[in-house]
Design a protein that fits this description.
Elements lengths: L1 H10 L30 E4 L5 E3 L3 H8 L3 E11 L14 E2 L12 E11 L4 E5 L6 H12 L3 H10 L1 E2 L3 E2 L33 E4 L5 E3 L12 H12 L7 E4 L10 E3 L6 E4 L3 H6 L15 H10 L4 H4 L15 E2 L6 H10 L3 H4 L1 H10 L9 H13 L29 E2 L2 H8 L13 H18 L6 H4 L1 H4 L2 E9 L2 E9 L2 E4 L8 H15 L19 H8 L3 E6 L2 E12 L6 E4 L1 E3 L5 E3 L48 H9 L4 H10 L5 H11 L31 H8 L5 H10 L4 H9 L5 H8 L14
Parallel strand pairs: 8-13, 14-15, 18-21
Antiparallel strand pairs: 1-2, 1-3, 3-5, 4-7, 5-6, 9-10, 9-11, 11-12, 12-13, 16-17, 16-20, 19-20, 22-23
């Protein structure tokens, strides 16, 4: 024991106890989904705070030279189930009091910790009085720290719907009370359709109309909304926007909705009692007779039936074999999960599983910021069986307490928090917990993968890195006008298909269901039969594709009216990415989601949609004559940033030299200007005044190409993306030194990059003032 403690003391130099501001990965391995609950537990470095599963800790220790790790082994035991029923949710919220619970079954947890010396694996159980006090403090900080993944989990699940006062309530216009609203619910009826349920009273003119029609035909006939649209015509610009749901009025309030374009949501009315009294309604005498909107939303969430996915009504057994691992929803992350599951069905991405060891071996010291490592981590989980119930990395089922009930079946899913955090880093939408568009996320992820491979080429393999190329294709646009044709190739990476509802194969059944639902809703609620199962339109995938590739009439093309445009495939991709656009803008300019089923065939031939270019006998349509472009206005001469100049002068450099340095680095930063000074302070013209505006060489000292010299910092940033120093200099010269524009310039010219760089640098007699953008 003493010899072991001596080795611990020899390794403790440089240790720092983790603080609340540090990220401590004590809840998940950075290279796998092992956790302290896995059979092998989790090893956390005392120096880097990175966690490693049992299968990775030895290799990590050998690469980093770290020797001291805290081993965490946690176990769960089910608590005896309480006889008290769970409290029903009372508001639309997640993870807060009164809302839907996000907690699973209640467990008691126990933790065993030990200090482990690598690579020998010798252990010192914790706590240990013989350990140096400082080492014990470092170990305790690791054990008690809130894990980095747990912090992300807690921030993702808390959500509550917020209802704000309407800005139209305070000075609401109310017409003279030409009628009194009866307190008897049996007297309430929609003034347009005759419906007797889901009725809304307009607080301005006393009109009673039914609620919005829902996707399945239920809800109402849009009576209240249609009436609001009419009031906007007579009382512009906002009409009479506030309505209250009859049957929800009590002394404590009611459901109020604002149809106004700038609100269009549930609101509160601070003067509701006063506004209702105008129509003869005494809130102190009213009783609740209908479900509130909140109650209806809660009921819908509690009884949500994903029939087409779960095959409701059947006793299903979960699949837990290799390749059938799920992904947990981390708070509106279903769009991420769908994209990741899609990618890992591709053979190119399935190579990440066997390639994972080589990727991990070349990972940087912190793999949490390395996209190839995080993709390989997920690939190993999805394509292996380590995290299926009973696998080497899956937590064992908790023992059942004596006399207690058995807990739920073990979960066959992992939570890719590190990958989601990394891909979303720096993106205003994908770094949030808000729902996003899956197609946009796929494009963002593919671009991020491409950047990672250009910066650290070869680690993911050709197939994975070239996903953008796998899904790339070219469309052929053919326009016919006046007996002549024009062809154009348009690159693409995804097809966005509109869904033609008018081509639904079951249109008659849908219309019959809607008519029956309309009649049912007009009956007295007490006598009305229960609604039928919804009938949604069925539109074939071929119909969506045919609509996209159908003939389109152009109002004007090169001076010809009524030109006919057809679209075909000029080239086909290895993987065709298709987005079905289910969102559309209604007549009232509100975004709505289309309720429709589009069965996708397992096999599909696109041969009929192949383009062939100019055909024999076709006459090409001449191009429009190019109008001479107006001469560009002379660009304003750049001026040095006075703050940078003052900082350099305070360091002892001449004012002329400081001005040259500021211009040479495009006023990017004092640090970059200082680096330029040290590199050019021996130049003959360093201390000379700047030349007059408009003359060349204004930055001086080797400015080259007639513009400011690229800063070393900018060149380094572009070089990290996989480009050479010469390419970086050319891009910066073409874009005036702006790094982001330079990166876009480089990526958009990969087909003939060397020629573009040569032109930007003024090489090869570019003629006519070379050095501009290609």
């Amino acid at each position: 024991m003493e010899a072991l403690l001596d080795r611990v003391r020899a390794s403790m130099r440089g240790l720092v106890p983790a603080t609340e501001y540090d990220k401590v990965y004590n809840d998940e391995c950075v290279l796998s989904f092992d956790s302290p609950f896995s059979p092998g537990g989790l090893y956390v470095s005392l120096r880097t705070y990175l966690g490693f599963g049992a299968q990775h800790v030895q290799a990590a220790s050998m690469r980093s030279g770290e020797t001291l790790y805290v081993h965490l082994q946690k176990r769960r035991t089910l608590r005896p189930k309480s006889d008290a029923p769970d409290a029903a949710p009372t508001k639309m919220a997640l993870g807060v009091e009164g809302g839907f619970s996000v907690d699973g079954p209640q467990y008691d947890e126990s933790t065993e910790a030990a200090l482990v010396l690598m690579p020998s694996g010798e252990r010192v159980p914790l706590p240990c009085q013989e350990l140096p006090e400082f080492v014990s403090t470092c170990c305790q900080a690791i054990v008690t720290h809130v894990g980095a993944m747990q912090q992300r989990k807690e921030s993702a699940v808390a959500w509550e719907a917020e209802t704000l006062p309407s800005k139209y309530a305070e000075e609401l216009v109310q017409l003279p009370p030409h009628k009194k609203i009866s307190p008897d619910p049996a007297a309430w009826v929609c003034e347009e359709s005759g419906m007797r349920e889901n009725l809304w009273l307009n607080l301005s003119d006393g009109h009673i109309g039914s609620g919005r029609r829902q996707w399945d035909g239920s809800g109402g006939t849009n009576g209240a909304l249609n009436h609001y649209e009419e009031t906007k015509k007579h009382f512009p610009p906002h009409g009479f926007p506030l309505v209250v749901k009859l049957g929800t009025i009590t002394p404590h309030g009611a459901d109020v909705y604002s149809y106004a374009d700038d609100e269009n949501s549930e609101v509160t009315d601070p003067k509701l009692a006063e506004h209702l009294a105008h129509w003869g309604i005494d809130v102190m005498r009213m009783e609740k007779t209908a479900q509130s909107v909140t109650e209806m939303n809660i009921a819908a969430n509690e009884s949500l039936e994903l029939d087409k996915i779960t095959e409701a009504g059947k006793d299903l057994a979960p699949l837990t074999s290799r390749g059938y691992l799920g992904l947990n929803n981390l708070g509106n992350s279903c769009y991420v999960n769908s994209v990741l599951q899609l990618l890992f069905t591709l053979p190119e991405y399935q190579t990440l599983h066997p390639a994972a060891p080589a990727i991990f071996a070349t990972a940087p010291s912190d793999p949490t910021g390395d996209l190839p490592s995080q993709l390989a981590k997920l690939g190993g989980a999805l394509l292996g069986d380590r995290y299926n119930p009973g696998g080497d990395g899956a937590p064992p089922p908790p023992p059942v307490p004596e006399g207690g009930e058995e807990g739920p079946a073990p979960e066959a899913a992992v939570a890719p928090r590190m990958l989601i955090s990394l891909v979303g880093k720096g993106h205003s939408e994908f770094s949030s917990s808000r729902q996003q568009d899956a197609a946009e996320y796929l494009a963002h992820l593919v671009e991020a993968i491409g950047r990672a491979e250009r910066a650290r080429g070869g680690r993911l393999g050709d197939g994975v890195a070239a996903l953008g190329e796998l899904s790339s294709f070219a469309l052929e646009e053919r326009v016919e006008a006046a007996g002549q044709v024009a062809y154009k190739r348009v690159p693409g990476s995804a097809l966005s298909l509109q869904i033609p509802l008018e081509l639904a194969s079951n249109a008659a059944e849908v219309a019959a269901h809607e008519a029956k639902e309309d009649k049912r809703q007009k009956l007295d609620p007490a006598a009305a039969p229960p609604p039928d199962d919804p009938v949604v339109p069925l539109v074939s995938f071929e119909a969506c594709l045919s609509r996209y590739l159908a003939v389109e009439t152009l109002e004007n093309f090169r001076g010809h009216a009524g030109a006919a445009k057809t679209t075909r495939f000029a080239t086909f991709p290895r993987v065709l990415v298709v987005q079905l656009s289910r969102y559309y803008t209604d007549a009232d300019w509100t975004a709505k989601k289309m309720a429709v089923a589009v069965p996708v065939p397992e096999t599909l031939s696109l041969e009929a949609f192949r383009g062939g270019g100019l055909q024999p006998g076709e006459s090409p349509l001449p191009d429009e004559p190019n109008e001479p472009a107006p001469a560009p206005a002379p660009a304003a001469s750049p001026q040095p940033d006075e703050a940078i100049v003052a900082q350099l002068v305070s360091m002892g450099f001449s004012e002329n030299g400081a001005r040259r340095a500021a211009l040479a680095v495009s006023n990017s930063s004092p640090e970059a200007a200082t680096e330029w000074v040290f590199a050019h302070m021996e130049d003959a013209d360093f201390n000379d005044p700047l030349p007059p505006p408009g003359s060349s060489g204004q930055a001086g000292g080797g400015g080259g190409g007639g513009g400011p010299e690229a800063s070393p910092e900018a060149i380094e940033m572009l070089s990290a993306m996989g480009f050479t120093e010469r390419q970086a200099r050319g891009a910066l010269a073409a874009t005036g030194g702006a790094v982001e524009r330079a990166a876009d310039w480089l990526f958009s010219r990969t087909d003939d990059l060397e020629s573009a760089v040569a032109a930007a640098l003024g090489e090869g007699g570019g003629g006519g003032g070379g050095g501009g953008a290609a």
